[in-house]
Write a structure and sequence with these properties.
By secondary structure, this protein is an alpha+beta fold. The protein has one domain (30-102): Histidine-containing Protein, Chain: A, CATH 3.30.1340. Helices cover 50% and strands 21% of the residues. The chain is built from three helices and three strands. It has helices at 2-21, 31-49, 77-88; strands spanning 59-64, 67-74, 95-102. A three-stranded mixed β-sheet has the order 1-2-3. The radius of gyration is 21 Å and the shape is rod-shaped.
C-alpha cells in the first residue's frame, strides 16, 4: 500500500515539474510560443523574399512572443516601409519593430 502512495506522490511531483518547465515567463518563451515564433519568422521571411523590389538577403527577421523585429540595410525609405507592411500582414504578428537602416 505504501508503494502505491509513494508512486502516486512521485508521479504527481514529476507531472508538476514537467508542466511548470514548459510555462513562459517575461524573459523566456514556452515551447509552443517558440514554435509559433519560428513559424511567424519563416512566413515573414517568405513574404519579404517574394517581394521582387526588396533585397531579402540584407534584411534580418527575428520574432519573440509574436513581435517581429526587422533589421538590416536597404536602399530607400520605401523599402523600409514595404518590409514593415509585409511583416504586419503576416498572420500571428502582433507588432513589428522596424530597425532597418537606409544605406
Amino acid at each position: 500500500m505504501k508503494f502505491i502512495q509513494y508512486s502516486s506522490v512521485l508521479l504527481l511531483t514529476v507531472a508538476l515539474l514537467v508542466s511548470t518547465g514548459c510555462a513562459s515567463s517575461a524573459t523566456q518563451s514556452s515551447t509552443g510560443e517558440y514554435i509559433d515564433d519560428a513559424v511567424i519568422t519563416t512566413r515573414v521571411k517568405a513574404a519579404i523574399f517574394n517581394e521582387a523590389t526588396l533585397k531579402s538577403a540584407q534584411i534580418n527577421v527575428e520574432t519573440y512572443k509574436s513581435v517581429v523585429q526587422l533589421s538590416g540595410f536597404v536602399d530607400s525609405r520605401n523599402d523600409v516601409t514595404k518590409a514593415g507592411t509585409l511583416a504586419r500582414a503576416v498572420a500571428g504578428v502582433e507588432s513589428v519593430r522596424n530597425d532597418i537602416i537606409i544605406k
